[in-house]
Amino acid sequence: MAQKLRWGIMGCAQIATNSVMPAIQESESGIIAAVASRGLEKSSAVAAEFGIEKAYGSYEELLADQDIDAVYIPLPNHLHREWVIRAAEAGKHVLCEKPIALNSAEAAEMVDACRKAGVHLAEAYMYRHHPRIAELQDIIARGEIGELRSIRGTFTYNDAGDTTNIRFKSAWGGGSLYDVGCYPLSAARMLFAAEPEAVTVQAIFSPEHDNVDMMASGLVEFPGGVSLIFDCGMWAYNRQLLEVLGTEGRIEIPMPFNARFEDAEFILHTGGEAKVIEATGANPYVWQADNFAAAVSGAKPRVAADDPVLNMRLIETCLDSARRRERILL
To answer: Which residues form the Gfo/Idh/MocA-like oxidoreductase N-terminal domain (predicted)?
Structure first.
């Protein structure tokens, strides 16, 4: 077996300790060689919990470690640009949490830095790696629901009571579009296999939450008159749904963005009948780790290199539309 990819974890956020780190340890392709935090006490505790050999009290020390091949960055959104670029300059491959940046200009700078350094950069949209996504795309490609007409996507939860949450810090890239709206937006681009032409978005900007968008809903227009209708929020009842509508049927995905094993099924509606499709179950974080390692080894990445730039362009345009309360062409 080829040598496993040696990961360094840059930060001890919950998404790292609860999901990504266990997945890397479960993967066939990777091991966690070190973990870093802004203080040695925290990183040492996490290293002990996961049985990791090295703990660092700064991110600089992690990047200086020659035994690290790749880093995972789960830092707050406003820190992504700096540390992705510094990791690239240190010769590390980078998996960075979504959204990758605060805007498309930052994302373009990060992609360019990684390209120049010859390292692989991926944005951590784990749901894209779940095997049922490929199964869903196959159904669409076979024409089982006819020609695509519309996609409807929702992702909401209610955490408004915790006003200290970093998701409610405007300068740090807070807000529902950055946090959960990015999922239906990225999914529509993926399933339509096209880039949007215009957006119209309305949002609730809350003074209690540093004026971030706590709820947003909108229309994203794609070529050929097809569209995404979406809503997202951090101040609404918990729900997820993705519906893909065609001329001859529709596909309903009840848990589109964080399904694993028992909730991977979706429903195909055609010919007046509803059929439950028992999609392949998996931990998408494990598949994400293995697909990342494969790309580092030379396999074609599942997502194009410039995808983070295009996705950030859409997110920032949605925010701009909400603030200006008008339709904006991309």
So the answer is: 5-123
Per the omega criterion (within 30 degrees of 0), is the bond before 22 cis? Answer: no
The residue from 54, 98, 116, 169 that is catalytic is 98
Whether residues 143 and 114 share a domain: the answer is no
| Residue where a domain stops, chosen among 79, 103, 126 | 126
Average pLDDT over residues 43-60: 98
Contact call for residues 88 and 113 (beta carbons, < 8 A): yes
Give me 53's structure tokens.
């050999």
pLDDT at 2: 66
For position 248, what pLDDT does the model report?
A: 98
Give residue 73's domain range. 5-126
The yes-or-no answer on residue 98 being catalytic is yes
212: pLDDT confidence band, cut at 50, 70 and 90? Answer: very high
1 — pLDDT class (breaks 50, 70, 90): very low
Rg from Cα positions in the chain: 20
How many separate domains does the chain show?
Answer: 2
Domain edge (last residue) among 92, 126, 160: 126
Tokens 């991926």 correspond to 122
Domain CATH for 30:
3.40.50.720
Dist. CA 58–CA 39, nearest whole Å: 7
